[in-house]
Design brief:
71 residues; five-stranded antiparallel β-sheet
Length: 71
């Protein structure tokens, strides 16, 4: 099992600041529509991926729950 620090480092490498992503799945009533694109602006200590969605949303991507892909 990976430690929190290992997971954080992996996510920061996979989703560096400025990376473009697309929402695949998010289980939240306020989620942007599937297919919405955005730009990563940070990965926080809780391993949430912070995204500025193109539709203006700032809803975080929760590691292990929500699904995004790099574009």
């Amino acid at each position: 099992m990976q430690s929190c620090k290992e997971v954080l480092k992996k996510l920061q490498e996979q989703y560096p600041i400025g990376a473009r992503v697309e929402l695949v799945q998010m289980d939240d009533p306020q989620a942007p529509p599937v297919g919405t694109k955005g730009t990563v602006y940070a990965v926080d200590d809780m391993c949430d991926i912070l995204v500025r969605w193109d539709n203006g949303s700032r809803l975080n991507v929760i590691y292990g729950v929500d699904v995004i892909r790099r574009v």
